[in-house]
Amino acid sequence: MNCYPMNSHAAKGCLSLLAGAMLLASSAAFATAEPAKAPVVAKELQQAKTYTVSSAPTEPLELAKPTLPDLSGYTAEAAAAKIVRSKPGKISVRRMMQEDALKDFIGGDNKMAEWVVRQHGIPQAIFVDDGYINLKDLVKKLPKQYISETAPGVYLARIPIVVGRHGILDIDQQTKELRLSQEGGSFLVNDGQLFVRDTKVTGWREKDNGPATFRSPKEFRPFLLAWGGTETYIVNSQMASFGYANSKSYGVSISQYTPNMAKVLKRPEPTGWIVGSEFSDMWYGFYCYETRDFVVKGNTYKDNIVYGIDPHDRSHGLIIADNTVHGTKKKHGIIISREVNDSFIFNNRSFDNKLSGLVIDRNSINNVIAYNEIYRNHTDGITLYESADNLLWGNKVLSNKRHGIRIRNSVNIRLYENISMANGLTGVYGHIKDLSDTDRDIKLDPFDAQVSLIVVGGELAANGSGPMSIDSPLSVELYRVSMLAPTKSSGISFSGILGERQDEILDLLVRQQKAVLIDPVERQTELRD
């Protein structure tokens, strides 16, 4: 069954059909599924050897549904109401050197050479300062060699555009399309307030008279970057063919200045909204760094190169909701990584991505991941790597090629009312791994490399290698978990330590309908001592 919906109604209908079909499927349908492989674990990780299985009190396991942020205020009208037009801005063209907002692109390592070659002289940029400017009016006031109208409402910028610290640039429906010239080295930098509303912004290859479609990671392509202290609002717009493998030049990026610059300039964390928009052929569809309270709502991220949505280092209070992310070519659909905390990821659809649909990574804690539909991704559905204290509630994780939900080196992971169905390997897979010989920049103390989880409610059904496999957990609690449609003729079978005590677990969980606690004897001894 092919299942590529582009809206929530189509997605839900298709998911229901898929679920029904897989529940009725015979074991032969998964005969070729790749068997689960034991994780590579170094000896010093001190795996537990003996476990007890016992009933646990159910009351502490019951949780109320998570309270999710109200999205009703993030609208086009609310974004427009933030625009202050009372003071006309100033427009100038000046050299790119000695500008704080451009130091990352002009400073050391001969970075300026890129723009010297493209502009055939000392690099210059368009600046909007000290008030409000509409892009249509900006074009009228500048020579055509810098920005010109190539068709009614279609503008081509041949040099960078910078919104200064007290500037406000509004690109609205009067602009049918803003094209940023790849040959000229054009890009957008926001150091004040930027509004992109009901329009289209495209990286443009003049030679081809068409979009600057991706060709190689190191080839310059136009991009949008917003710095610390800024507000950026992108609403009901389309952006395409942005970004390449260069710092701060990934596509649409929201980033605090470097620590020294942020301190000198006294800039708070950046913020803003991206609502109801479409992003395609971007190196990264969305990237942020040390960003607060940013809202990414109701957008489509399709056919981007490395990631669809990628919040990064020390961002917090984010809302990522109601987005559709699919067709990411190199890595994951949605990923948060390196201490992205206290955020909400809910009601998103992520499918047909090269690796996982949704990843929580590298010490990202205290996040709520709820009601997402994660399916037909080419590796795992939802992946948690080295990230403790997260709640997964009511997600549908279907027909991913490897594990449905994968948890590595992460403790206090709570899985409530999730459906993990028809995945190629395991419905829920927990394991520990020594990372000392890997290229990941997170190094764990051996005693921190643990897995503990609570699984309450939901369904684990028709998964190729069984409903659940947990290797050497710190603890596991199970309650009210439905396990249907086993793909093996022998019936439901667990892997890992659960398999060793399967009869006891199923007796408590299914026949007696009690909560089950699986606990290492070594841990119990430590607690008594």
The CATH superfamily of the domain at 85-283 is identified as Single-stranded right-handed beta-helix, Pectin lyase-like
The main sheet comes to:
15 strands, mixed
Largest sheet strand order: 1-45-42-39-36-33-30-27-24-21-18-15-11-8-4
Overall mean pLDDT: 89
Structural class, by secondary structure, is mainly beta
Number of strands: 45
CATH class of the domain at 85-283 equals Mainly Beta
Residues in helices, as a percent range: 10-25%
Point out poorly predicted stretches: 1-45, 524-529
Quaternary structure state of the chains depicted: single chain
The rounded distance between the terminal residues' Cα atoms is: 56 Å
Kindly estimate the percentage of residues that lie in beta strands according to DSSP: 25-35%
